[in-house]
Amino acid sequence: MAKKLLRRKAATADKQTVNFMNIIFTVIVGAIALGAGLFGIFTDIKDISTLALIAGNVILAIAVVEFINMLRTGHKGSEFVFSLMRAGTGVLIAVLLIINYNQNMTWPLVLLSIYAIGRGILDVLTALLFKKDKTEKTMWIFCGGAGCILGIITLNAGGFADKTAFFRIFCTYLAAYGITALISSAYVLKAKK
């Protein structure tokens, strides 16, 4: 009887540690996204190649943190597939942006749009399938919807006179994603107490 109780307490402690580590990783991703988003919105850099290189490095940093968290948690089944898709897509888009940063404006525009739309869809699906708390689920659905909308706007931003407008629109999504991740982390941490 006592052994069962001790095993149950140990399993609960392990689960709480995993949840706390997930919160830490979400805060790291949120801070990277928010910092990069605000930098991109308010920067004076006008060179498209430099902006594409910055975006590629930011997306790569986010994908690496998510990939480490995915390996650490050892998700199984469809949650693993969603985590792998999120991290893998980020790495692929980032590498394409970094390798081809010297291309014309269309290439980074399309890649950033694909990233924002794909990430938005994955955020919505993850919220619907894996988030149990209604408030957290709603936050991630709105964030995913914003990603899809801003990704579509980014794709259509090529006609703007200011050729860096697409980067600022994409950075608005990054900032929104970062804010959502930080608020979600604070909410989950508060709910755990």
Describe the 3D structure.
Helix 3 (78-99) packs antiparallel against helix 4 and helix 5 (134-155) packs antiparallel against helix 6 (165-192). The chain has a single domain, classed as Serine Threonine Protein Phosphatase 5, Tetratricopeptide repeat, CATH 1.25.40. 85% of the residues lie in helices and 0% in strands. The protein is mainly α and 193 residues long.
Summarize the structure.
This protein has 193 residues and is mainly α. It is built from six helices and no strands.
State the main characteristics:
globular, 193 residues, Serine Threonine Protein Phosphatase 5, Tetratricopeptide repeat, mainly alpha, 85% helix, single chain, 6 helices
CATH-defined architecture? Alpha Horseshoe
Principal-axes geometry comes out as globular
The CATH top-level class label: Mainly Alpha
Tell me the Rg in angstroms.
18 Å
Which SSEs are present, and which pair or pack?
Elements: H1 2-42, H2 48-73, H3 78-99, H4 106-130, H5 134-155, H6 165-192
